[in-house]
Amino acid sequence: MTSLPRPTTDLSADEARRIALRAQGFLGAPDRRSGVRGVLRHLGAVQLDTISVLARSHELIPYARLGAVGRKAVDRAYWTDTHAFEYWSHAACILPIEEWPHFAFRRRAYRSRPHWNHELPEGAYDQVIKQLRAEGPLTATELGGAKKTSDWWDWSGAKVAVERALMYGEVVCVERRGWKRVYDLAERAVPAELLHDELDDAECLRRLVRLAGQSLGVGTRADIADYHRLKGEQVDAVIADSGLVPVTVEGWSKPAWADPAALATPPRGRHRTTLLSPFDSLVWERARTERIFGFTHRLEAYVPKPKRVYGYFAMPVLAGGRLVGRVDPAREGRTLVARQVTLDGARAVPSVAQALIEAASWVDCTDVRVERVDAPELREPLVRELTRALA
Question: What is the pLDDT of residues 12-22, one digit of tens each?
Fold first, then answer.
């Protein structure tokens, strides 16, 4: 095993936390001029998910950093003029179009994959490509049907074929329409200068490790691998040449690497107060969230209701650079309902109230109703704070 280089910098746990916050766009003045596209480029990946409570996760990500950005403007920023593409990164993610060449290693891996979950009917692949070439961007339904039955995973032959073509890179998802993927040929959707898979695996991996380090600010090997779902050995093979520098972090039991630009200046500025999507890249990895914030976070949407602790879509509340509580939200008409609220003591009440008021305004709600607070004695102070702010 190759010995690790000697760390060049020692960071306190607080310094590492602030570096991570700045790298994720939560510390310092937001870059409003570059807007949603700037957030996407800065993060390198914005995760998609089907759940929509206040809004879909890919809308919540820029909102958390920029404030009340128009929801329609979010989709326009991602998809207009081919600024982004959808592909498998941390999960299904929106990615900056300029990173298309750096996912060539994954497209090649999918092409050599020995087995798939779905059988590809003979001729279906060529038919999908032919139809897209003739008719332009289409959904799976328009290509011949998304599913054979009502079962979620029972895909039609056309759906199997177009998803296979998406993974191979011959087809691109160019937008989401009513949450359906809209597919087009990569040769039309990807700028010509980016289209060809000319980078070898090592070049791709070096770039993605570097991008993960920049987006995290500082992270362990596991943190960096998880960002774009690389294998640990893939990170090991390229990290020495990625431009990241080894550091030690107080309280971290594993070696860490940092973006040298993140170490160049102390992280200072105004902290954002906001609700976070459970799929936000600040908190999407549980072990890292616990290590940096001392905060246990778990999405419970897929947990049976009787076993939920914090609620269906509990959203962490960020304030003052800390995670100070959780809110499980819902909407009833023009009322934002906080079905369950968890507060990290009385000091968190004003921040949670502020986050709720701003979120309500963003989704055109004029009132906020609190149902349950885990610490019953904090319910009345929270309601009082909300009432004062809404008056």
Answer: 999 999 999 99
